Amino acid sequence: MSLIRSISQSPNLRISESCTTCNLGFSASEEYLACLLECIKHGTTTPNETFRPKIAATLKARPALSARIEAAKYTSNSGATLWRPEDDRVREVVLKLARGHLSYELGIQRTDAPLTLQVTPLLLMSDEERQSFFDIESAAIYPEIGSRSFINCLSGKPTAYENWLVVQELTYAYAVGQGDGNWVKILIREYLACHVTWD
């Protein structure tokens, strides 16, 4: 069951144009993050029948990647399995996604560094932090005039503007807004909460 309530469902995957350098330049980091999250979900880097087939194939074909993720796994004093991700790779992917969502929904290009970029597993958030992440208060302003979000808001179509939009159930959802600057919230695999803001 999805953690997100009162959402709009997206019938199609979102696609935003990018230059070849940007599109291909993050492939290794995107592959790393996808494999990392799958391994965290299953508690192991050894693929089995419960792994997504594509991720299982990647881990088997790239033993060096599997070894890097395995090296990030450790056991806490309480016996819990924890992971130390390659933070730069994770943040690189999240920033690319956030820029893409702003471009797709609002027609805004933010190639500058964000004001904040927070990436936190939901399990490490307090109840108040989780509620703040999922709750989206309206800034009572229209989205960028002429943007996809503006048109969808006026026509009653599903929109990610100040609203969680589920791209793939239990896998990916996002929201965008312009209150106090441009912002993007992303939830990946019902596990990783991401919040990126620009002034």
Mind explaining what this structure looks like?
The protein is built from seven helices and eight strands. The chain has helices at residues 20-25, 27-42, 53-61, 63-71, 87-106, 127-134, 148-155, and strands at 8-9, 73-75, 81-83, 116-121, 165-168, 172-177, 183-188, 192-197. The model has no long low-confidence stretch (mean pLDDT 89).
SS-derived structural category: alpha+beta
| Tertiary shape | elongated
User: Count of DSSP helices?
Assistant: 7
Strand order of the largest sheet: 1-5-6-7-8-4
Q: Which residues form runs of ≥5 with pLDDT under 50?
A: none
How many beta strands in the DSSP annotation? 8
Strand content: 15-25%
Q: Main attributes?
A:
alpha+beta; 6-stranded mixed β-sheet; about 200 residues
Topology:
Blueprint: E1 8-9, H1 20-25, H2 27-42, H3 53-61, H4 63-71, E2 73-75, E3 81-83, H5 87-106, E4 116-121, H6 127-134, H7 148-155, E5 165-168, E6 172-177, E7 183-188, E8 192-197
Parallel strand pairs: 1-5
Antiparallel strand pairs: 2-3, 4-8, 5-6, 6-7, 7-8
Helix pairs in contact: 2-3, 2-5
Structure at a glance:
With 199 residues, the protein is an alpha+beta fold. The chain has helices at residues 20-25, 27-42, 53-61, 63-71, 87-106, 127-134, 148-155; strands spanning 8-9, 73-75, 81-83, 116-121, 165-168, 172-177, 183-188, 192-197. The protein is elongated, with a radius of gyration of 18 Å.
